[in-house]
Design brief:
CATH architecture of the largest domain: 3-Layer(aba) Sandwich
Largest sheet: 6 strands, mixed
Oligomer: single chain
Helix content: 10-25%
Number of strands: 27
Strand order of the largest sheet: 15-12-16-20-19-17
CATH class of the largest domain: Alpha Beta
């Protein structure tokens, strides 16, 4: 049995990005850039105006009000060739238009009388004001987004600004999902005596999608060697294989033995956590294989703590663990020392502080607590539990409240 920390370290040390691809920029939002993006030209390409107003020479505007003759007009999208600001003059200019020769300041139209033949400046003028200088944002040859960066709307804007319609990103891993057990029936079938619907497969597929992977549901392995061989062979063709159930020590728990027969190297089996102890991890070549418990609560908990970080790393993410923060307990949390305990919590925020309470009965058969949970606390193995008022380290569960 390995510890919680050891298990996570083994997993993250065993996985790597699954490759790269070039995709259209609009499809790249939320993906991770796979190569440094270098500016092919200066941004901006020329000195230009940051305001609608007048291009002037600051030395002509030492006193206010100041009256100047308007000698030209520069809208955005035209060249400034042949246009110059002479002493005592101004050129009317629009935002983004190239700055004409001779000027060193832009006066916003709101600070003038908006004249067309002559203009009166009503406020003091400072050299360089409202000027966008060439290469002020990014100079040609400079890396402006580094490999490993998450592509958000700001990165899309800048990449588009340099004409990069196709961008290199780390590929999304394909994740085969297999449930095991004769008791399982598929969604849409009515379960008979002793049967249950295969909800784990859909839950895992949803979690894979949420983590950026591409789920590939390969069905149910029945409790016999032939079915396990067939399904596991198929699953090992994916970038990642996740199995649910069949990993304990019962007569029908065949997953680990069949994986070993197929050439998978087991790196650990059993983790010192509750829930989710009978979790195994193996490698088949470079393909990580996660064998998770069959209890739906344990399946989701172990996916969250072990599989999700691995999938993020395989997509090039630099930060793969959810950040921890402090929450004050509104009720005690019972725990026996010896194993890490993963507790499902509700959260409330008051006065800038987070407060936590149990999401309900923490038994692994109580699926409702996963629905109600907004956060998870990972209580250390040596902990004897916590009392009301204690601060505990927690992380959000899911994405629905992380913006708060």
């Amino acid at each position: 049995m390995v510890s919680f920390t050891e298990a996570r370290s083994i997993i993250l040390d065993s996985v790597q990005p699954v490759g790269t691809e070039r995709i259209h920029l609009l499809e790249a939002t939320g993906r991770v850039l796979a190569e440094d993006a270098t500016a092919p030209w200066d941004l901006p390409l020329w000195d230009n105006s940051a305001m609608d107003g007048y291009a002037v020479r600051a030395e002509d505007c030492l006193t206010t009000p100041c009256r100047l003759r308007v000698t030209g007009f520069l809208p955005a999208g035209v060249r400034a060739d042949g246009i110059k600001v002479e002493p005592g003059c101004a050129v009317r200019i629009m935002t983004g238009a190239p700055a004409p020769a001779g000027c060193d300041a832009i006066v916003p139209v709101e600070e003038t009388d908006d004249g067309t033949q002559d203009v009166t400046l009503l406020e003091p003028v400072k050299k360089g004001q409202h000027f966008r200088f060439r290469a002020e944002d990014v100079a040609a040859g400079v890396v402006f987004v580094r490999s490993g960066a998450l592509i958000r709307p700001p990165e899309v804007n800048m990449l588009a600004g340099f004409g990069m319609a196709l961008v290199p990103v780390f590929r999304r891993p394909t994740v085969a999902i297999l449930s095991t057990g004769d008791e399982l029936v598929e969604l849409g079938q009515s379960p008979g005596p002793g049967e249950i619907i295969n909800s784990n497969t859909l839950s895992l597929a949803a979690a894979v999608q949420e983590a950026g992977g591409i789920p590939r549901i390969i069905g149910i392995a029945r409790d016999n060697r032939e079915s396990h061989l067939e399904k596991l062979r198929e699953g090992l063709k994916a970038d990642v294989l996740i199995t649910s159930a069949g990993v304990s020590a019962g007569d029908c728990d065949l997953v680990r033995d069949i994986l070993e027969e197929l050439g998978a190297k087991q790196l650990f089996w059993k983790v010192g956590i509750k829930p989710g102890g009978p979790t195994a991890f193996a490698l088949h070549g470079l393909t990580p294989v996660f064998s998770l418990p069959g209890n739906p609560v344990s399946t989701m908990i172990t996916f969250e703590e072990f599989v999700r970080p691995a999938l993020l790393r395989m997509q090039g993410y630099q930060r793969v663990l959810r950040p921890l923060f402090k929450a004050v307990l509104r009720e005690g949390l019972k725990k026996k020392p010896g194993k890490v305990q993963i507790v499902r919590l509700r959260l409330e925020k008051e006065g800038g502080r987070w407060y936590a309470s149990s999401a309900g009965n923490q038994q692994t058969a109580i699926l409702r607590t996963m629905v109600d949970a907004q956060a998870i606390a990972v209580l250390p193995a040596e902990s004897h539990g916590s009392v009301v008022g204690d601060e505990v380290d927690v992380h959000f569960y899911g994405n629905h409240i992380e913006m708060e």
